[in-house]
Design goal:
mainly alpha; 62 residues; 0% strand
């Protein structure tokens, strides 16, 4: 069990809500994604983002 928890901590350590919010705000302001992050994107990520964006737009029209 300790091995699993350690793996999850090390694997997710570079990610945080604060880093995501900063990246998200910069992207919405018109800055491109960093090349290292852009290289990791796959078509399934693009589709998931499109679905999320459409969902947020529908919520905004209520």
């Amino acid at each position: 069990m300790t091995g699993g928890v350690t793996y999850m901590f090390v694997h997710n350590a570079p990610y945080s809500d604060a880093k995501f919010k900063l990246l998200h705000d910069e992207y919405l302001a018109g800055h491109p994604l960093p090349p290292a992050l852009r290289a990791q994107l796959k078509p399934k990520h693009i589709e998931a983002g499109r679905t999320y964006r459409e969902k947020m737009e529908r919520r905004g029209h209520r």
